[in-house]
Write a structure and sequence with these properties.
With 284 residues, the chain is an alpha/beta fold. The chain folds into two domains: 176 residues, D-Maltodextrin-Binding Protein, domain 2 (3-Layer(aba) Sandwich), CATH 3.40.190.10; 96 residues, Periplasmic binding protein-like II (D-Maltodextrin-Binding Protein, domain 2, 3-Layer(aba) Sandwich), CATH 3.40.190. It has twelve helices and ten strands. A five-stranded mixed β-sheet has the order 2-1-3-10-4, sandwiched between helices. The protein has a five-stranded mixed β-sheet with strand order 7-6-8-5-9, sandwiched between helices. α4 packs across α12.
């Protein structure tokens, strides 16, 4: 039985994977799945895919698209979450920053270069006819690093998934000065070219299992309570998140959506040019 190493952030979006593992759904299909957590987010996962440390990852669509165009030997093999991501725009509670429109001249905490917390502020600024220069970026690795950086004044602004950061907003550590909704499906499933070539049948079975589990999760009567308990989030927050999120339950990938992503990445000068979709997407 071939082992497939699967990476993702340790956040509520990935609960369907953990439920599938706990219920041995992959094993029943003759698959050995090893889960690897990446608190550093998409930037950490694109690096892990490049280095062959992991075979498959759930990562931000814009992050993996940009990195594949820049040479990552991987392809998107499907979508994981079809709805957009709601980014909270945060600062420390003691920072005098008050208005969303004042953020563009400030210093930004980013988990890693190439991560969503790096790319999305640039896209946001571009859409508002603003720009962010490299000397405004402070690399902080993960959420804990952001809390420290924002607290000591090294950085002023931090983009992170709204509901993941809400507990710190509720505690009065952070304040949310705005939100940004990505104009595309937020999470894609990407696999290295090596695993695509060596194990296409296993990847097909893996995708079938996770799509089934996403469908089951979305139709579960206790999904909200389960997420609230496991991730220590308020029930009402989880409820809002759950009913605004739709997971993929089949192999469909919108090529128009991927073209939208490339267009915005080029507009924001994150990539130099758009490429044929065959360079980004591989249908199993």
């Amino acid at each position: 039985m071939k082992k497939i190493r699967v990476g993702g952030v340790p956040e509520h979006f990935n609960l369907p994977w953990h439920l599938a593992l706990e219920n041995k759904h992959f094993e029943k299909e003759g698959l050995e799945i090893e889960w690897v957590s990446y608190p550093g987010g998409t930037g950490a996962m694109t690096k892990a895919l490049r280095n062959g440390e992991v075979d498959v990852c759930m990562l931000l669509t814009e992050g993996i698209t940009a990195d594949i165009i820049k040479g990552n030997p991987s392809k998107i093999i499907g979508m994981y979450v079809n709805t957009p991501l709601i980014w909270g725009v945060h600062t420390h509670v003691d920072n005098p920053l008050r208005l969303y429109g004042e953020t563009y001249s400030k210093n930004y905490a980013i988990s890693r270069f190439g991560s969503g917390s790096h790319l999305i502020p640039i896209v946001d600024a571009t859409l508002n006819d603003k720009s962010i220069s490299p000397d405004q970026l402070v690399e902080i690795k993960n959420l804990d690093g952001a809390l420290s950086s924002l607290g000591n004044g090294e950085s002023d602004v931090f983009y992170w998934e709204k509901y993941t950061t809400k507990p710190w907003v509720d505690k009065g550590v952070l304040k949310r000065v705005g939100e940004f909704v990505t104009p595309w499906s937020c999470f894609a499933i990407a696999a290295t070219d090596d695993i695509i070539e060596s194990s296409p049948d296993e990847l097909k079975r893996m995708m079938s299992v996770i799509h089934f589990n996403c469908d089951q999760f979305m139709n579960s009567t206790n999904a909200v309570e389960l997420v609230s308990k496991r991730y220590e989030q308020k029930l009402e927050d989880v409820e809002q998140w759950f009913y605004s999120t739709e997971w993929a339950i089949n192999d469909h990938v919108s090529t128009k959506m991927l073209r939208n992503v490339m267009f915005m990445l080029k507009q924001a000068e994150i990539i130099e040019k758009e490429v044929p979709l065959s360079k980004i997407l591989r249908r199993l």
